[in-house]
Design goal:
Blueprint lengths: L1 E5 L3 H12 L3 E5 L5 H9 L12 E3 L2 H5 L4 E4 L6 H8 L8 E4 L12 H7 L7 E5 L4 H5 L4 E7 L2 H11 L4 E5 L3 H23 L6 H18 L4
Helix pairs in contact: 8-9
């Protein structure tokens, strides 16, 4: 599959490395003024991830997406709307758009898949790729599990079949809203866990995890998820 990754930060560069490792023709896009892209253009490395010469590097958004069969987007969540406004006129089906990011738009409260969908024709499905994992652990060969979800069942299956491998086992998501909100809200629990460490109250982490999980589930249900 011909895949373009948009976003050359630590996670975006890892996704590029991973997709290349899985045998896909991979392009990494970064803004012309991005210091991260400057590192890759100079040395093909950001000090953590090193990309082989076969991975294409591009600072032209139009050129980067021209032949892509899938776009994997990994940028700050509050920047997604601006990016999609640029991408919308450039994209045509058949194409998969995959959001590897989490959060809600602060101004509107919209989920990221909703924002992306506002700028895409119905024939281009939006999927999310979510889950735990640290770049250094993946690079060390330590596997993990993640989820891909979409309202388009064919897109979900197509992406899981293309992306799964020995480092990442993918599960089929069955609740797009729940997965997006859960991924965004879990960081609140993580911050609270860190606060308990700082207060020397680690004995409360069990209660935090059990009640925090329940509160996230109630929030998802209130928003219409399952």
């Amino acid at each position: 599959m011909n895949i373009t990754v948009i976003g050359c930060g630590r996670w975006g560069s890892f996704l590029t490395w991973y997709l290349d490792r899985m045998g896909h023709q991979t392009t990494l896009y970064g803004r012309p003024d991005s210091p991260h892209m400057a590192q890759f253009l100079a040395a093909r490395s950001n000090g953590v991830v090193t990309l082989p010469p076969r991975v294409r590097l591009s600072t032209s958004l139009e050129a980067a997406v021209k032949e892509a069969q899938a776009l994997v987007i990994s940028i700050g969540s509050q920047n997604l709307r601006g990016l999609m406004a640029q991408l919308g006129p450039l994209l045509k089906p058949p194409l998969d758009v995959v959001l590897c990011m989490k959060g809600l738009e602060m101004e509107t409260g919209l989920r990221l898949s909703q924002i992306a969908g506002q700028y895409l024709p119905a024939a281009i499905p939006v999927s999310v790729w979510l889950g735990p994992g640290h770049v250094q652990e993946f690079l060390a060969g330590i596997p993990n599990c993640m989820v891909i979800d979409s309202l388009d069942e064919a897109a979900k299956d197509r992406l899981i079949q293309a992306f799964r491998g020995d480092l990442i086992r993918f599960y089929y998501g069955q609740d797009l809203l729940g997965n997006e909100v859960g991924a965004a809200a879990k960081n609140v629990i993580g911050i609270a866990a860190g606060m308990l460490d700082g207060l020397d109250r680690t004995n409360l982490k069990g209660a935090l995890m059990s009640r925090g999980t329940r509160e996230i589930a109630l929030l998802i249900a209130a928003m219409g998820g399952s």
